[in-house]
Amino acid sequence: MKSLKFECRLKSRVNVLRSIQSKHRFQHHCLASENSNVARTNLTPSQHVLDIWHKAEAVCFDVDCTVTVNDSLDLLAEYMGVGKEVENLTKKAMDGTLSLGQALEERLKLINCKPKDIKSFLAANPPQSRFAKGIVSLVTRLQERDVTVYLISGGFRELTLPIAEQLGIPRQQVFANRMLWQWDDETLEPSRLVGFDISEPTARNQGKPQAIAKIREAHTYSSVVMIGDGITDLEAVQVSGGADLFIGYGGVQRRAAVEKDADWYVMDFAELEAAMKCYQVAMIGSGAWACAAARMVAQNALENTSGMFDTKVKMWVYEENYEGRKLTEIINERHENPKYLPGVSLPENLVAMPDLLEVTEGADLLIFCSPHQFVRGVLKQLAGKVKKGAVAISLIKGMRVRVDGPQLISQMVERMLGIDCSVLMGANIAEGIAKEELSEAVIGYDNLDNAYVFEKVFQRPYFEVKLIPDGPGAEMCGTLKNIVALAAGFVDGLGYGPNSKAAVMRQGLSEMMNFSTRLYPSIRSETFLESCGMADLIATCYGGRNRKVAVEYASSWQAGAPQTFDALEASLLNGQKLQGVMTSDEVQEILRMKGWEQDYPLFTTINRIIHSQLDPSYVVKYKEGAGINISLHADPTVLKSGDTPPKGPRLAPLNTF
Amino acid sequence: MKSLKFECRLKSRVNVLRSIQSKHRFQHHCLASENSNVARTNLTPSQHVLDIWHKAEAVCFDVDCTVTVNDSLDLLAEYMGVGKEVENLTKKAMDGTLSLGQALEERLKLINCKPKDIKSFLAANPPQSRFAKGIVSLVTRLQERDVTVYLISGGFRELTLPIAEQLGIPRQQVFANRMLWQWDDETLEPSRLVGFDISEPTARNQGKPQAIAKIREAHTYSSVVMIGDGITDLEAVQVSGGADLFIGYGGVQRRAAVEKDADWYVMDFAELEAAMKCYQVAMIGSGAWACAAARMVAQNALENTSGMFDTKVKMWVYEENYEGRKLTEIINERHENPKYLPGVSLPENLVAMPDLLEVTEGADLLIFCSPHQFVRGVLKQLAGKVKKGAVAISLIKGMRVRVDGPQLISQMVERMLGIDCSVLMGANIAEGIAKEELSEAVIGYDNLDNAYVFEKVFQRPYFEVKLIPDGPGAEMCGTLKNIVALAAGFVDGLGYGPNSKAAVMRQGLSEMMNFSTRLYPSIRSETFLESCGMADLIATCYGGRNRKVAVEYASSWQAGAPQTFDALEASLLNGQKLQGVMTSDEVQEILRMKGWEQDYPLFTTINRIIHSQLDPSYVVKYKEGAGINISLHADPTVLKSGDTPPKGPRLAPLNTF
């Protein structure tokens, strides 16, 4: 997608050259415009144009004859009784006799109004009486999508602000010329209009691209669109640093020169509104977290009145029988997933389906949230079958260990489907989200445009989403914290206090950071302070199921009746696999392959405890635990439930260490 | 203290020049040495010399005639029956006819031994039969103090390693020459001695300072001492990059040239042992944390067999009556502080005293751990009365707000007493430490030498201490986390889940970092990932009393019977003040003064909740809470217990936000 934008920017550069070559093009075209009828091909937008329109982060509107059906200054002149004179002057400007600035200056002199005249003029001609057809609806829908709307007018700020106010556009998003007033000896007020401030970009030739350049300096918009009826609006894409796309509007004034060179020419704003992107969203997975996430997605799809999302959100459910019936049927009837997220009502626009390809057919946004051991199978089925232009996000925590190194889930999606894949990670225990308690997450992205869309998919009043340009960092955090959660569970299960738990968690975060940046040197250390890092670690070490099972494990050892993780998963997790155990094994395999085990004493000790090679109390003596030569001390085979665990090295009682 | 070291280094530089000027000094002095009797002034060490000896982090010993009563190579020659010949050769070396390297080479040729000869020689002459008087005890005591001991020998590694092993010195701490062997056609083993490796620093002239330079490259020792009997040992301080101090040893061979130029000359290692620093430690404070910390300090003072600490540790107790008797008397009788840390036995060498000046008299190490509102009064009493050279550490969490900006407790100590003050901060809930559960802390230092000493004061098998060069960062962490703990308590008291708590804690840590680095730009962001940062935050947000009282506060509001913090402190804290409330008020005063309130929405909302200006449920809507114009919505006066709280703005029910 980046390449399209680049292509479009390139085009702008070419246009700059074109513009320089034909210096007097402006006047010439303006004169020729009204009567000619040029053959057109840009009434239907190309895919390039549509792509930019879909991902525009800022849209700038010209005001006179675009937002409003008339020119405010002409109207004011009429109101002041000098309509005819100003009209003649405008004609002179069109002849090329006067420059833009001179013409404006002359018109102001003729109009010669006082502040009170402007006020009464505005009262007599309120903006709502002059709006072009469809503009209010278009601006509203753009704003609902968090697209920032600007007004860039060659007219005056004093006449434009009331229009902006009606459209809900803040003052700082209005660019126009400012009148200059002087103190009037008679009124003893600054009521003498003496001209206008020539330092505003709109006061100069090529003022609109200059205004847009100012906007771009202050923000990081990746795409900016200019919409207007005139040649000065078209200039927005003809000068470097301006807009990425120019849409000509002919609903009030149809000008041939503009129509000829516009990237897209519309006669009605309804065309633009209809062409706004409507994303189809597919959730792949239906566990507790998938259901809690899909619930937010479906809520957003329904509530987003901008039409950005298809209200129907499809969710792939691995079909199984529950209480004698198909799980998909139960979900669609009861609007609840009684097996994995019981007691939580799901929106009616969330539809459960057992056929993976039916779910993803036509989907623009793919959300992966299946158990991580099934992802590869899912991706194999999807390979070559996703919609062109579709993008993905992964909510899955885990990694894949291969001979040539580890692979993140997002990397697997990108490689197997050939599409961009962001990640959403954070302190997100499903039950809390389902209860709509305050939660936070980050979207780790590579492509910012896609991240913006996913932000709108997930952001809820109770669910704060932050974008960070570190997908691998966020994903590693989400993955590795489950290992540390086991340690936290051991600490809790053995009855140690908060100092010990905090110490183990700190060491855990430290090993997470070190391991992640060693595998992926681009990972940023700030990421570990975000919701996906320390916050998720905290939530998981106090509230998650990895901790819960680890508590039981440690207690069972302490009580002298040790259980295995397999047995505990079966009895406590409804048969679901414990993520932390799988991840610990995956990470340990990497550590072994690379000869790094001793550099990660907590990770190593946890893995040894999991496999009953060490007593759980080693969690608070992890350096010692990692240093023991296991083969000399304990049987490395994994215990079956009911077995007596091999005795680890003799442990000193806690208070003597 | 740094300046002394600098002076001493300067002296080394001067010596380098001196050494270069008298090129042939080495041979000359060696010949002159044995019989002359120079007038001496360095048999008693100066204070400068003692200071360096006290803070030495590495001590390097020459081996032949220093550690052992003879020269191993001479002894080997004798053993091989060529003692006389080697003796003659040594004389030739002393004449200046042969270089150091040539002499060594020639002696090896004469000795002409096989590997098996070396083995049988070593068996016949075990190191323990040849140790100089007092060396084993001295080395042991140095090692007990974590001073790293090196052997730097002009002889051979093969003969030195058994000596090192007996002294518990690891191989990597031995510098000596390595023999070179070749394959012997007859034995078919590498048993032919052909010379020695000239790439070892000790194989060259000025080899000892070169070996020390190598050591210093690999470590960050601030002080290194060389001890030996010969001129090559003295060179260690005569060449830049070498040792900071040279102590001549004359117990085996008394050489006048060495005696003349040594910084300190001893005839018996017992002199060095006797001159080791014995620190007197004073604990100022006797609350729960002070008692738990003093318990560790007293344990260390007793158990450190190096004599580094006076075993008697004095603790200042603000005298009060407890069950009709003086608290100090009860503590000294029962070895327990029943009022502030009941049920925890204190070591008998910890002595409670009511007189502050009696406690600090003669103390080298002052540990401040009183309630932070009393520190100023304590420091006023101590000003001008602490021992010269004494240094301090603060365990106190809090800050002082003054018109000209905030002041940390450590800064107050430094300013009012004129001494260096480190801080010890970490996830250290007193009860957990008293139970000897695994805990961690950092010492934030400005002066590394002092931090090393305090590390030995506090480090316990269950209490991991890490040194970080960021005192202000550690102290700000320890101080600010108590505010966040209140927020955590509100979240818990209102029954929100782990996602919300993690989100609030993450925001808290983020505001802590931002506020700290804004006040003190030198603060390092890594500090917030240490035990004093995220770990302490976690422990305090789950286990501390700030959280506990905040839980009660929020529950009381939720139950419709709101209490004030004053009332809760009285009923829950035995009348002690809640640190978080005080710190929140202090920080808020700074935020108000600087106009920063809106930049710290969580801090601001917490402060408003504390003062009953907002309902506690605003803790999960802190942005909104900080944005409300309080004066318009609620009575800003603090509630008395039993009052009905003013209603804040109408709150939406939780699940609709």
UniProtKB/TrEMBL annotation, chains A, B:
GO terms for molecular function: glycerol-3-phosphate dehydrogenase (NAD+) activity; NAD binding; protein homodimerization activity. One of its GO terms (cellular component) is cytosol. It catalyses: sn-glycerol 3-phosphate + NAD(+) = dihydroxyacetone phosphate + NADH + H(+). Its EC number is 1.1.1.8. Keywords: NAD, Oxidoreductase. Residues 280-449 form the Glycerol-3-phosphate dehydrogenase NAD-dependent N-terminal domain. Coiled coil: none annotated. It comes from the Eukaryota. The keyword Membrane does not apply. One of its GO terms (biological process) is glycerol-3-phosphate catabolic process. InterPro entries: 6-PGluconate_DH-like_C_sf, 6PGD_dom2, G3P_DH_NAD-dep, G3P_DH_NAD-dep_C, G3P_DH_NAD-dep_euk, G3P_DH_NAD-dep_N, HAD-like_sf, HAD_sf. The keyword Transferase does not apply. Residues 472-620 form the Glycerol-3-phosphate dehydrogenase NAD-dependent C-terminal domain. Belongs to the NAD-dependent glycerol-3-phosphate dehydrogenase family. This is Glycerol-3-phosphate dehydrogenase [NAD(+)]. It comes from Chlamydomonas eustigma.
